[in-house]
Specification:
478 residues, mainly alpha, Growth Hormone, Chain: A, 77% helix
């Protein structure tokens, strides 16, 4: 398979940097903005985050169907959405962080409408962006590089927010002015990054059916067991991760009383991302994506346990727990996108139709649902603990923050690992699937039934993940 050039890999990573100018800003600061700036109670903010993020999840499915039905001979299937959807997305981020004081009901209604609109716009850009990776290459190592580039792009933005913005979130500061300025600047930067992606990240994978019908979309999802397992595992993992992300600032500011460590944490994340990105392709080749996912997730469990059990006076132990948790999160988030791209080929193998859009949409749907539940649980933990904006926190409030930052991520990640331990689409089986798909394209054959090839191969899969396909194509050894 032809290797991707460095410019296309960097260009793809730039797209996720642009995505996270809207997404990470919201996940890191929107709960704080709603409680400390807009004056929305923690309980009401938690319900808002839950409702709107569940709406976002359904918006992903809608976006997936729109993507599968679209095709441009000049720009391909995915890049037009990035071209024309990026500016509205970035402008809606400005609106989301500009809640007017128009009474309790009016303020809450404005927050619901703008955040829901932001979620829909994000879906219409992010679903095609995420689907683009599977259309750029089918090589596992190259996909790992794209996953690394994506993670670097996201973490560059997340680190910048942690280094330069988080220290500004303190009592008495003009937070509304801060968020307005930041989001306006992001419109300019984000637009430039998105268009760089459009110009450099090209589709190279053969597609037999450019415009996919609804029935074809449903057929590819119906029997795609690896995708369903990955979705369920990601739901649990994202529930824990978003609980941590939503209260990370509260944990440093109100539990450890060291908000100044937020930039240190962000710099640490950035360094770890580059380190992980450097050896992740080799790690994937040696261990396989499934094992990398599981081992990385277990690291997050250890970190969450440390955060939950560490007394507030033990600053550096608590901080070390945060670093361990986020190290595991970084590694999982690098490899998970390559796992999702593999499930696209699995669906094509079983049905003869390639449906990146709806496959990515279902995956994103479960991730968004996990984000919704995680963010809401974090907010409810604050409310149950009696969190009060701008005041010294009680022992109950501190315990609530520790539950959201430590216990929830640990428990949810254990559930994610248990699900992933049953995942059957190993790298060896994926290689066999790719070989059969290629053979079909050469011969012009299609699977006789949607499950004929898959049923025989899965029935013959051994404990190491090596499979024998319906055409007896040998898989490489693990």
């Amino acid at each position: 398979m032809k290797k991707l050039n460095k410019l296309s890999i960097i260009g793809y990573g730039a797209g996720d940097a642009a995505n996270n100018l809207a997404f990470t800003t919201a996940t890191m600061f929107l709960l704080v903005y709603y409680t400390d700036v807009a004056g929305i109670s923690a309980a009401a903010a938690g319900t808002l985050l839950l409702a709107v993020r569940i709406f976002d999840a359904f918006a992903d499915v809608f976006a997936g169907r729109v993507v599968d039905r679209a095709f441009s001979k000049r720009f391909g299937k995915f890049r037009p959405f990035i071209m024309f959807g990026s500016i509205p997305l970035l402008l809606l981020s400005v609106a989301t962080f500009s809640v007017p004081q128009i009474g309790e009901t009016g303020t809450l209604l404005y927050a619901y409408v703008t955040y829901a609109a932001l979620g829909l716009a994000y879906s219409l850009v992010n679903i095609p962006y995420g689907s683009l990776a599977g259309a750029m290459t089918q090589d596992p190592g190259e996909r790992a590089k794209l996953g690394s580039a994506r993670m670097i792009g996201a973490l560059l933005v997340g680190s910048a927010l942690g280094i330069f913005v988080a220290p500004l979130i303190k009592p008495g500061a003009d937070l509304q002015g801060t968020f307005t300025t930041i989001t306006l600047v992001f419109v300019v930067i984000g637009a430039a990054l998105y268009f760089f992606t459009v110009l450099t990240a090209k589709e190279r994978v053969h597609r037999a059916v450019p415009n996919v019908t609804f029935k074809q979309s449903m057929d590819t999802l119906k029997g795609n067991k690896p995708l369903l397992m990955l979705c369920l595992s990601s739901f649990f993992f994202l529930t824990g991760y978003l609980a941590l992300t939503s209260v990370q600032l509260y944990y440093l500011r109100d539990v450890l009383h060291r908000l100044d460590l937020y930039p240190v944490l962000s710099i640490t994340q950035l360094v770890l991302t580059f380190v992980l990105a450097g050896f992740m392709p080799r790690l994937v080749r040696n261990l396989g994506k499934k094992k990398v996912y599981i081992y990385s997730a277990l690291l997050t469990v250890v970190g969450g346990t440390v955060i939950f059990l560490t007394p507030a006076s033990q600053v550096w132990i608590g901080f070390a727990g945060l670093v361990l948790s986020l190290m595991g999160v970084l590694a999982v988030n690098i490899v998970v996108w390559a796992l999702e791209a593999d499930t696209v080929e699995y669906g094509e193998w079983k049905t003869g139709v390639r449906t990146e859009g709806i496959t990515y949409a279902l995956f994103s749907f479960t991730r968004k649902t996990g984000q919704a539940v995680g963010g809401a649980l974090a907010a409810y933990a604050l409310a149950l603990g009696g969190y009060k904006s701008g005041a010294a926190q009680s022992a109950e409030a501190i315990f609530g923050i520790q539950v959201a930052a430590g216990a929830l991520p640990a428990v949810m990640t254990i559930l994610a690992v248990l699900v992933m331990s049953k995942y059957k689409l190993t790298d060896a089986m994926h290689a066999t699937i790719l070989a059969e798909i290629t053979a079909r394209r050469v011969s012009g054959d299609a699977p006789k039934t949607s499950g004929a090839a898959g049923g025989q191969s899965e029935a013959n899969a051994d404990g190491t993940g090596t499979a024998t396909s319906a055409k007896s194509l040998a898989a490489p050894a693990n």
